[in-house]
């Protein structure tokens, strides 16, 4: 009889803990930045006709290269995913004939973008 009471108590404790474990608002989640953190000053260094290597030097390796279009790179950044103060930024780089031709996304196009670097 005593072992049945002990088992019942442990069963209730285990059931309660497993039920509350699913409540994500009660569980602390650490903020982990995901992707490429870029600042506008980094993007301002980009110029038309830069090579892929030059873009890699300035921005680093992209989070994703388009599997169907090798001429498109995606730089993505996410912080505080799923929270009220979530931050997301993206930058898409397009190449043509191995040279940078355009960029789009959440960053302003550099004022000097259409001025190629001196060769």
Automatic annotation (TrEMBL):
PROSITE patterns: PROKAR_LIPOPROTEIN
Subcellular location: Cell outer membrane
MF terms in GO: protein-macromolecule adaptor activity
InterPro entries reported in the protein's UniProt record: BamE, BamE-like, BamE_dom
Membrane disposition: Lipid-anchor
Gene Ontology CC: Bam protein complex
A Pfam family that the UniProt record links to this protein: BamE
BP GO terms, sorted: Gram-negative-bacterium-type cell outer membrane assembly; protein insertion into membrane
Keyword list, A-Z: Cell outer membrane, Lipoprotein, Membrane, Palmitate, Signal
Segments forming domain Outer membrane protein assembly factor BamE: 35-102
Assigned protein family: Belongs to the BamE family.
Assembly description: Part of the Bam complex.
Function: Part of the outer membrane protein assembly complex, which is involved in assembly and insertion of beta-barrel proteins into the outer membrane.
Protein name, per record: Outer membrane protein assembly factor BamE
Organism this protein belongs to: Pseudoalteromonas arctica
């Amino acid at each position: 009889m005593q072992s049945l009471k002990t088992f019942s108590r442990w069963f209730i404790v285990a059931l309660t803990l497993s039920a509350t474990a699913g409540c994500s608002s009660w569980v602390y989640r650490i903020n982990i930045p995901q992707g490429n953190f870029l600042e506008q000053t980094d993007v301002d260094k980009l110029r038309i006709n830069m090579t892929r290597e030059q873009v890699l030097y300035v921005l680093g390796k992209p989070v994703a290269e388009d599997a169907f279009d090798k001429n498109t790179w995606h730089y993505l950044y996410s912080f505080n995913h799923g929270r009220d103060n979530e931050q997301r930024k993206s930058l898409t780089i397009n190449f043509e004939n191995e040279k940078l031709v355009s960029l789009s996304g959440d960053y302003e196009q550099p004022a000097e973008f259409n001025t190629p670097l001196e060769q």
